Predict the structure.
Amino acid sequence: MEPSAVPLHTVGTSPQRLDAREKVTGRATFISDLRVPGMVYTKLWRSPLPHARLRAIDTTTAARAPGVLAVLTAADLADCDRYFGPAYKDQPILAIDRVRYAGEPVVAVVAYSEREAEAAVALLEVDLDELPAVTTLDEALAPEAPLLHETLRPAGHFRDLANMRPIAGTNICHHFHHARGAIEQGFAEAEVIFEDVFTFPMVHHYSMEPHVAIAQVGNDQITVWASTQHPFPVRKELAEMFDLPLARVQVIVPYLGGAYGNKSYTKIEPLVVALARKVGRPVRLALTVEESFKTVRRAAARVRLKTGVQRDGTIVARQCTAHYQIGAYADVGPRVAQKAGYTAGGPYRIPHLHIDTYAVYSNTVNSVAFRGYGVPQLAWAYESQMDIMAERLGLDPLDMRLKNLLRRGEMFAPGDLPIDADLPGDLRRAADAIGWGQPLPRGRGRGLACVIKAPLAPSVSSALVRMHADGSVTLLAGTVEMGQGARTVLSQIVAEELALPLMWVRISQPESGTSPYDQATSSSRSTTLVGLALQAAARDLQQQLLELAAEQLQTHLTHLTLRDGGVEGPGGRLSYADIIADHFGLPGGELIGRGGYRGERGAPLGGVAPFWEVSLAAAEVEVDEGTGQVQLHRYISIADVGKAIHPQQCEAQEEGGVMMGIGHTFFEEMIYQDGQLLNPGLFDYRIPTMTDLPGDLRSILVENADGPGPHGSKGIGESGLMPTAPAIANAIARAIGVRLTALPLTPERVWQAMRAAQADQTA
Amino acid sequence: MEPSAVPLHTVGTSPQRLDAREKVTGRATFISDLRVPGMVYTKLWRSPLPHARLRAIDTTTAARAPGVLAVLTAADLADCDRYFGPAYKDQPILAIDRVRYAGEPVVAVVAYSEREAEAAVALLEVDLDELPAVTTLDEALAPEAPLLHETLRPAGHFRDLANMRPIAGTNICHHFHHARGAIEQGFAEAEVIFEDVFTFPMVHHYSMEPHVAIAQVGNDQITVWASTQHPFPVRKELAEMFDLPLARVQVIVPYLGGAYGNKSYTKIEPLVVALARKVGRPVRLALTVEESFKTVRRAAARVRLKTGVQRDGTIVARQCTAHYQIGAYADVGPRVAQKAGYTAGGPYRIPHLHIDTYAVYSNTVNSVAFRGYGVPQLAWAYESQMDIMAERLGLDPLDMRLKNLLRRGEMFAPGDLPIDADLPGDLRRAADAIGWGQPLPRGRGRGLACVIKAPLAPSVSSALVRMHADGSVTLLAGTVEMGQGARTVLSQIVAEELALPLMWVRISQPESGTSPYDQATSSSRSTTLVGLALQAAARDLQQQLLELAAEQLQTHLTHLTLRDGGVEGPGGRLSYADIIADHFGLPGGELIGRGGYRGERGAPLGGVAPFWEVSLAAAEVEVDEGTGQVQLHRYISIADVGKAIHPQQCEAQEEGGVMMGIGHTFFEEMIYQDGQLLNPGLFDYRIPTMTDLPGDLRSILVENADGPGPHGSKGIGESGLMPTAPAIANAIARAIGVRLTALPLTPERVWQAMRAAQADQTA
């Protein structure tokens, strides 16, 4: 039975989210709600300086403060590997000899209460010897720049592709190069060449829940309740650091209060485990919002684009040189430079392409995974430049894009998945929806943008589906619910496969001890790839049911179909409960289906993309020429989902992405001065509110069933925010003829750009 | 590869228990240690009368007491099925219209703290109309006895075999009949006929941890942290009562602080769920020791045995009529009458056998499952009578037993498993170890006893073994760790199968949401039957490893063997980590093995015994003829384990059983007067202490590899206590010529029996 050939019952409908009721009634359990018996608390002393040597730490007074159990520095934790990091193991759990950014944890106080820990932190005396710091790309890349990491850690600590390494004697954490064609020849053939530079600021994820972790260590095992999107990679890193078999490390993940990449891989977990191991009690660390700002951010970027085109708009050659300003430690910085860099040509046909991207260390807070994984920074550049080029060539930006957009089946890069979406069709839908080409009053303009992102590849997911004696099922999968609605969608996929109502399906909490392996809840992959693993597990179970039913009904299984919680054939109907009861001869027993997804390996980055995440948008703005204030009136986001398993969630996730994109487009920027982050909190760091949303905000679902996932689905979720900034900037440019190349598009910047443009015209 | 054919590495050794360190350091988590966010507490108002109508309950004052959230009676809980019970659904969660024993829960107060709940309980006013009560077997069986259950509940509420039903118009909860041969003919053929009556008192399990449960209800699901040996049957009962699919009910079981049957099936869980559902918060109920005494006990019994023998000691015929005095509600009472009754012939060849056992309701606390499941009561009778007969016939009790003991392969009952143990050999080992036949000083005597018990059958267990990327494994099985060491033994079985060190194996906590189905942690079944399920799962995994390795090493899998965490063959060696890494091409991924055990159905009780649990003992006592004080000097317990997976645990479990047997032999008895339990606590209810143990207490492991479990293992654990009382009584009889037929063998009883015997001699 090929379920997509029969009418769908659950898939494609929008039932109430499984976690809706408990979340709106405040009963859902987040880690912050957990209390582990005997649990104690830690607070951290963080470096006030961006770069310094640690001369001495006097813990005497703090250690004697009321309620204090232990005051620990890196020196006290030397009996484990104190370095961690997903790509390079270059980040110490507490500063060792040196601090590299203002906010870096140096000393941990463990006490019976958070208040006591905090009070004792104030009693610490830390003697620092300040070093020159680099807090901008220019400073970090200067020839004589102070270096953050003079000596490279041993080779074993670089865990990714063999060529992923810092460049010795520089602050370059990784240089990624990718090319095809012959770039010089390409520029020689081009009729017009454009060169532009765009910048994207540091921004913060601002998930509602800052990082929290509780660790319990003992009896040769570690248990961590972690706010992580990566329970299995966190398990692996902890097992390595603390020298235990993987089976001895449990990572349990209750609901996350948002993540957007900030809870990717290990963050505070290694420290909390090291402390719990030391004090012999469960230890809890819950960051404040300010501490969260000092823990994670998106890489800032400067992108230089040189693009050669013909006068008819055909792109011939592109050279992209992008610098991602990462923080003091690598985290996924090198991977972002690589993975995003790989798509710097955008979703376009470019015969000659030459890409160099760099991840550059600086004395600032670490940049980590963030929705879009480096692509929004590049898209901001290439989709702004697309309009610059169209305008200068006198072409319609829609037409120019359509001319260059990759068609379905065209190669993106040799050895990788051919294009699996109808990009021109998608773009036309965006244009149609915004009323492209229709007249607008003065001060208004419309803009378009198209983006492509390569997902994490290859990746692996396993899944189990357990059918209980009454026919209801429990799914075991490692996907983390972080607000995206994964639990509901994955349950729908299995309910569909097994012809069960959603109420009869339950998905268990991700826990490395009991959930089958899943590589990551990231990269818009869960519906598609964990969905495939679960679908395979459900089909394995289906097969078992059909075989048993065929025996029990004395027929061949090809005559049988699954319907309404039972198996039907010419000889009659058996409910699943009947089948199981007959098989076991008892009121109990269960059938277990297992399934997996394993990504294909391939060039050039190691894995073939399972699908391309495409992202298209159209915006309409109005600019107040007196103040520079931009009002976003309308915004159309195209969600090319292949098949919407839960349409309402697809739309909502896309809209959430757009809202986040509106944030970095208009408001958000982490401001550093003298190495100090000036706005680590919501008073000074402005995120969008509901009143910042356009009156007409729509996400249009494109369902061409062209994804590899269940029922033709493919991933969205990051898509919403990738084209937002250029679509809006392009709309502004078409409204008032002014081009901005730096985000955010504050009224001040817009006003100054208008003044500059007027001055140019006057001059 | 047949692992039992190769040298064993882990199985058969006695590594440190996996839970040893956390338990001795007090860090192990029991339910009592858990705090669920938002949790509130309940205390119960219990009936002071053994039998009464509920006239009125005034909750007004209690409801207004400080901290009180709700005061609930059965009437408030009428929106669910308020009756539960594993065999008959005859027990209300709170008394409905009527109370049937002193201590029965009537009203529940839910408050913010236990203290507040308790204070409010004292403010309840309950108007009871006393009814005549029956608190002994004679009262309950009297022709005009007041009935506990005048009307039978609907048929759907009797969940066991079709013939398991109360007898209308009586207090007989169930009558079990089993026979073979022709009993009258048998007695006619016999040369001598013996008739004796033996009694066994009510005793309490006294596990260190009384019953505790926490329930959380909401979002269409129930989560219960329960101190239960039966997570899956508890799930089933809750799903039925509260009308949810099984997948929506989670039963989580941390360590139990002892059980011995008292935590079989549902006890306080349905009430706690009903309360949590009502108040919309997690509710915790933790019984006190006194409340535990008013919740569970072992059935008292009166056993009438009529046995016909030849003068050479050959048993010809036996009629057994046993009455089990159960409490106010059935619980497993009917099953105990049936299952134990089935073995009332003992491990002997008896051509003509006629058994009637009765479970009889009375106005006392419920009798529930208790180590031995009704067999110790019968064994007390038939093994005492064996010595009575031997003595009167002038035969050696050892010889008489050997003459009648069933041989390996002999039929126990038609359609059931033939005898799978060397009973004569086992008995000889016991006799040899105690020095049977060697001279003894005056006042000393030796006694023997042999018992057989039928395990739960048929039963079902499923298991999963997950191998992680480094080759370490997590076992998922539903077995509850209640001190018996199951986690260690099951881990050893898998470690052996996969050639891994024990440290690389972890077993997860039983939780119905994530552990595969397991019918029960009871009936000495886990090592053998869950062991088989896990072994099958490990072999499934083995096969996957061998297939992958064969491909990777380019050889045929028959050339490969598993050794030291890897696969070796002529072409080289691959660690499991290598095999997995090569298969997935990534640092993560896992292989999942699945396996199951499914018991064979068959006559006469529905399932064929997977093995016979046999139990043999020899005791040596000294009786102080002045005081009647009996000193147990030596005790030999034969643990016929087939194969000891963990010899030290086998010995310890057997010794623990003996100690429990010493309790009911010498000290324990729940005393009722006017329907009131007089000794519900350790001041008045004496259990054995270390000083009551014999100086020479030995358990001898018999390892004939004749069990069906991994490596030939079979179940022990109940065995230790089944022959204790008759072995000791027989030793007393041989020491001082006095036969006791009622337990416990207090100095007073022994002294009075001696006086009576002297009076007889004098007369």
Notes: Chain B has 18 helices and 32 strands. Chain B has three domains: 20-29+459-598, 38-131+211-286, 300-456+605-762.
